[in-house]
């Protein structure tokens, strides 16, 4: 291959890279905007003063032997949700977060973004929390679409993360070539 053909080949690869980079960026602009903003918020959630991630409150005892049975705590959390937030809300649990070191148990509900922190020993309410960080996380990873569409196996999230992950990989490769390709072409021209 002659020098002229090599240069033409490098210029062709550069044009293709530029077109892929520009087209992918234009098509996925909104997704990347959401991913970047929500990623920033998630990175700062512990330093948000309770705005994004609720503070974990302390109960009266860290000794599990002093705690009420989990089913009693669960019933209490459900009663609090219905009495304090809305009787219409689902009581299906996403998870129970036992914080032995804080003497607290947190009930996080699946079908809405609310949680309840109870004293493990007394069952008294420590805090009702709106789970903003969970909502932001679902936007970040695309599972918010599964949440509202009611899909059970995260199919939309899988497609979303595959597309955005592959696009980010493509951006990395084409972005590197858009930076390095012209340098290489100038260097080859200077060596002639």
TrEMBL record:
Protein's organism: Spirosoma sordidisoli
Official protein name in the record: PepSY domain-containing protein
Source organism, top-level taxon: Bacteria
Transmembrane segments: 20-44, 158-180
Organism ancestry: Bacteria, Pseudomonadati, Bacteroidota, Cytophagia, Cytophagales
UniProt keyword terms in alphabetical order: Membrane, Transmembrane, Transmembrane helix
